[in-house]
């Protein structure tokens, strides 16, 4: 039931394949449907962004957070919306609703990212190793950057 570790190589392969298909479709529209260039390229752009984001969440974000499934957030938890986190190579700027209780850091991606497949997580502070930098901790093999208030309980351990 454990998920595979994140694969940047696989994500890059999927990214190149998606881009090749999207560019091919755009070239076909330009050649054979010139009257539809504007609307066609606009639709393809939005579809492409959604597909690339879904691939990034599925192949990178969700796999990194798989060991820590989301738990119910206690009512006394401190919550803030639109926080920025960076998990290794995945940067989620202003895209995370965070909550902190005595035991866990709860991360919930904003609604558009959840619709595209990004999962939430509840990471125990016991899994975090404080870093020498004030806004970072180590979680497993990843350096995690985020707001200082989110890591206060990890620094106390």
Number of helical regions: 4
Unreliable stretches (pLDDT < 50, length at least 5) are none
* Major β-sheet profile: 7 strands, antiparallel
Structural class: alpha+beta
Quote the average pLDDT: 92
Order of helices and strands: HHEEEHEEEEH
Measure the end-to-end span. Answer: 30 Å
Radius of gyration: 19 Å
Helix content: 40-55%
**Silhouette:** elongated
Question: Total strand count, please?
Answer: 7
Record the strand order, biggest sheet: 4-3-2-1-7-6-5
Q: Strand fraction band? A: 25-35%
Structural description of this entry:
- This protein is an alpha+beta fold.
- It has helices spanning 8-32, 37-65, 111-115, 152-156; strands spanning 78-87, 90-100, 104-109, 121-124, 128-130, 136-139, 142-145.
- A hairpin with a 3-residue loop joins strand 2 and strand 3.
- Helix 1 (8-32) packs antiparallel against helix 2 (37-65).
- The protein starts with 7 loop residues before the first helix and ends with a helix.
Give a quick summary of the entry.
The protein is of the alpha+beta class and 157 residues long.
Entry keywords:
157 residues, alpha+beta, seven-stranded antiparallel beta sheet, 7 strands, 27% strand
SSE order and pairing:
Layout (H helix, E strand, L loop, with lengths): L7 H25 L4 H29 L12 E10 L2 E11 L3 E6 L1 H5 L5 E4 L3 E3 L5 E4 L2 E4 L6 H5 L1
Antiparallel strand pairs: 1-2, 1-7, 2-3, 3-4, 5-6, 6-7
């Amino acid at each position: 039931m454990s998920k595979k570790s994140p694969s940047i190589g696989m994500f890059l392969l999927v990214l190149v394949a998606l881009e090749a298909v999207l560019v091919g479709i755009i070239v076909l529209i330009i050649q054979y449907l010139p009257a539809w260039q504007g609307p066609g390229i606009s639709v393809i752009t939005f579809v492409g962004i959604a597909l690339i984001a879904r691939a990034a969440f599925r192949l990178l974000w969700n796999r990194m957070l798989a060991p820590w499934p989301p738990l119910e957030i206690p009512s006394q938890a401190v919550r803030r919306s639109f926080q920025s986190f960076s998990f290794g190579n995945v940067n989620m700027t202003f895209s995370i609703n965070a909550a902190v209780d005595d035991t866990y850091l709860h991360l919930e991606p904003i609604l558009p990212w959840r619709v595209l497949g990004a999962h939430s997580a509840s990471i125990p502070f016991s899994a975090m190793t404080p870093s020498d930098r004030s806004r970072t901790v180590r979680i497993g093999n990843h350096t995690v950057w985020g707001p200082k208030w989110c890591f206060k309980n990890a620094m106390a351990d």
